[in-house]
Amino acid sequence: MNLEEDIRQMVLSMDGVATVYAADPVWLSALKQLGSLMDPDSAAQPVPFVVCSEAASSETDTGDAGSTGGSSCRSVMTVKIRIGTDGALRAPDMARSVAGAIRTFVTALHPDVQVKAVVEISAIGV
């Protein structure tokens, strides 16, 4: 499995999570699929449930004790996921819990990467 699928399976196993939806809203997924169908040289891409994107982030030291006074570049991974809950926890608590689990999971696999988790709750079960 890849990182995105590992994250999806981990989130699905959490208490309070009922489902994981496509990372993009339905209208955007449909638009992307339509765009790929209109290009004869490209095949339709599978709809992702989790999107991980990585970029370099520049951090500047402020000259505090123990710092070198220079700047360093650290990689930042943004993980985007949309979930449905079963209503067991309040939505903000559920989002924080899932975001924390994602950060812990990814940091364990990639300790040199800073993780930003974006959790959207699309449905709350009752």
How much beta, percentage-wise? 25-35%
Number of strands: 4
Average pLDDT, all residues: 83
Percentage of residues in helical conformation: 25-40%
Task: Specify Rg, calculated over alpha carbons.
Answer: 18 Å
Oligomeric nature of the chains? single chain
Query: Which structural category fits the helices and strands?
Result: alpha+beta
Distance between the termini: 32 Å
Shape: globular
How many individual helices? 3
> Strand count, sense and closure of the main sheet?
4 strands, mixed
Low-confidence parts, pLDDT < 50 over ≥5 residues? 60-68
Secondary-structure element pattern, one letter each:
HEHEEHE
What does this 3D model show about the protein?
The chain has 126 residues and is of the alpha+beta class. 33% of the residues lie in helices and 33% in strands. It contains three helices and four strands. It has helices at residues 3-12, 26-38, 91-109, and strands at residues 17-21, 50-60, 71-85, 114-124. Strands 1, 2, 3 and 4 form a four-stranded mixed beta sheet that branches. Helix 1 runs antiparallel to helix 3. The longest helix is centred in the C-terminal third of the chain and has 19 residues, at 91-109. The radius of gyration is 18 Å and the shape is globular. The chain starts with a helix and ends with a strand. Residues 60-68 have low confidence and may be disordered.
